[in-house]
Amino acid sequence: MKDKKKKIIIAAVCLAALGVVAALLGVPYFMSGAPCDGVIKIRKGASVESVCDSIRAEVDNDYADRVETLLKLTGSDLSKRQGAFKIKEGMSVYHAMRLLRNGDECGVRFTFNNVRTKEEFASRFSAKFMVEKDTLLAALNDPKLCAKYGRTPDNITGMLWPDTYEFFWDVTPEQLLDRFNDFYNKFWTEERLAKAKALGLTPQQLEVIASITEEETIKSDERGKVARLYINRVQQGMMLQADPTVKFALGDFSIRRLTHAMTEVDSPWNTYRVKGLPPGPIRLPEKKTIEAALNSRAHDYIYMCAKEDFSGYHNFAVDYGTHMANARRYQAELNRRNIK
Q: Residue 24 above 50 pLDDT?
């Protein structure tokens, strides 16, 4: 134990002395700055050589050579280090060596949107972080882990809201879900919960409605109106008959025109066959769509159909007869454009 302490003290003194000498003498080899920013990702068990290969790829060959030399001169062992570490433009070789030896890891920004499935989310996330896609997907499909957040594998995506976040590169699936759960709980203030209750809906039901709304309209200024239509249907105990739920059940969102046979698909997600909301969102819903649903103006519409001008907006109706007239105009335009 004494020998070990002695070695640690000697190493620390040598390192400090090296820094002082480098600073006083201005040795270019030690004090030259990084030519650009670079994020260096280290896995446990990594060698000095492999870490410096990352520096070569992210920053510069000459700079990496100098860092490698200094790491070896100081007897650095990086095998127990793990995480992402940011070398900033202008950072000296000496300070880069200290960062890699015992500095704090940096966060990695993650921005995502327009995601429909757990598979898509896991694929995008694993492309930027250490966790493997299959590992993350297994966590999202784990009933026990989902239950920790009051969820099931069918609706766990309801709290994975598209936005920009920052996580440590080596974040675990459970740590990731813990963070998303924190963001989720912060959103659902007493005021928002009261608005949901006034609509007779739970937050999780609103997530599902928001996801259907996003698939129904590309127009952000129409989201509240569309969401309220589905809220009306839920409140009246009607079948939702939402086309996007059929596409989700079939696993094909490229369908332009649903057939009767498609609406007969046997799936809990098919709202042409199953009354009420599907078991979970059909895409990862955005916060602003949930807000649009919560703050939507009351109306009596229970039918909608895409406008025949293909503007992306919809015609709304209170009665079935008006709706069918709207639908015939749209169908005629589909035929004219030869859209199958």
A: no
β-pairing verdict for 303-306 and 163-168:
unpaired
pLDDT, one tens digit per residue, over 255-269 is: 888 899 999 999 999
Q: Look-up: residue for tokens 């005021």? A: 191
DSSP 166-199: EEETT--HHHHHHHHHHHHHHHS-HHHHHHHHHT
Residue the block writes with tokens 């190493």: 11
Distance CA 220, CA 236 (A): 25
Please, what is the end-to-end C-alpha distance for the chain in angstroms?
79
Question: Is there a contact between 135 and 173 (Cβ–Cβ < 8 Å)?
Answer: yes
Which stretches of the chain are DSSP H helices? 2-25, 28-31, 48-58, 61-73, 93-102, 118-126, 133-140, 143-147, 173-187, 190-198, 203-216, 223-236, 243-250, 260-263, 287-294, 320-336
Closest CA to 173 of 124, 123, 138, 128: 138
Which is nearest to 177 in space by CA: 198, 149, 150?
149
The total number of residues shown for the chain amounts to 340
| Amino acid at site 174 | E
What's this model's pTM, rounded to 2 decimal places? 0.85
